[in-house]
Design goal:
- The chain has about 300 residues and is mostly helical.
- The protein starts with a helix and ends in a 5-residue tail after the last helix.
């Protein structure tokens, strides 16, 4: 081995890349911290009102205004529940039953109509398909409150105001559900499968119910769940359409009690406790159906 080889200095490693990696790591940490902080703020924004609702429902009228927001007062939770259930001969239970019926009807049948319409927009070829779907997308942009007055005028023409049909018929239409169903149909219903069914002699209706609907079931559950929540929280439509208290949903019924609480403060704990009880069906629906709609949201990652 030559002397020149032994005395050759070893090449030094450039200092640039580690510095860039440190900068990248620091930038990644800052970005992760920002995202997590925003998520925590969003969760707090949604969860803290529910937590306050739970604490407030355990208080009587005096403790409601005389104690801290997130503190227990004199135990009055069972008394508040009893007052809610016994007020006006158990009218609250009737309101809950009405809301359950309206929301379940809209979720099952409105969701099915949305899935059928989205499937048709995706798989069928007909004149004006894109134009009609554009009208559906415009319907997504229109707020529900803007359609209440026209629907009331139409219901008046047909004489169905102050009836359950004034609520059931409008909830069958869900433009966002149609859009979402078309996305699910395009992603999860292969055209080759439908073509094979047609070769075997299956018509369009049989192909949909035998193949299309089972493949779109996670999407159907997701759309139905969104529809259930939307109908349950709907306020303006039943407020305008209905006058009979026996037909009101719980959202409008609690607002009536809220009006009573101004001259009669003892209604305030009832309003709060009734609001807490009214979210229980939504929680149950999400818990029972979570494996369906979560699979629908994640199916595209493994397709």
């Amino acid at each position: 081995m030559s002397t020149s080889t032994l005395s050759r200095p070893r090449a030094s490693t450039p200092a640039g890349p580690p510095k860039r990696r440190r900068v990248a790591r620091n930038g990644g940490f800052a970005s992760s911290f920002t995202v997590n902080a925003l998520l925590i703020l969003g969760c707090a924004y949604m969860v803290l009102p529910v937590v306050w609702l739970f604490f407030a429902s355990t208080k009587n009228t005096a403790d409601l205004y005389g104690t801290a927001a997130y503190a227990f007062g004199e135990p009055a939770f069972m008394d508040n529940i009893s007052a809610v259930l016994n007020q006006d001969g158990g009218l609250f239970l009737r309101w809950m039953a009405n809301s359950m019926f309206y929301a379940a009807f809209g979720a099952i049948f409105g969701g099915l109509i949305s899935v059928m319409a989205g499937y048709a927009f995706d798989k069928f070829q007909f004149r004006g398909r894109d134009s009609f779907f554009g009208i559906v997308l415009v319907g997504v942009l229109i707020p529900n409150t803007a359609t209440v007055l026209p629907m009331y005028l139409l219901a008046s023409v047909f004489g169905i105001t102050n009836t359950i049909w004034a609520i059931l018929i409008p909830v069958l239409c869900n433009p966002f559900g149609v859009y979402l169903a078309r996305v699910y149909s395009a992603a999860y219903v292969p055209a080759e499968t439908l073509e094979a069914a047609r070769v075997d002699g299956a018509g369009p209706i049989r192909s949909f119910f035998s193949l299309g609907l089972p493949m779109m079931m996670p999407g159907y559950i997701t759309i139905a769940l969104f529809q259930f929540v939307g109908v349950w929280n709907n306020f303006m439509l039943p407020l305008v359409m209905l006058q009979d208290q026996q037909l009101l949903p719980v959202s409008v019924g609690i607002s009536i009690w809220q009006g009573y609480s101004i001259p009669q403060p003892e209604f305030t704990p009832m309003v709060i406790t009734g609001s807490l009880l009214s979210i229980i069906p939504l929680l149950v629906a999400f818990i029972m159906l979570q494996r369906f709609w979560k699979s629908g949201l994640t199916a595209g990652s493994v397709k």
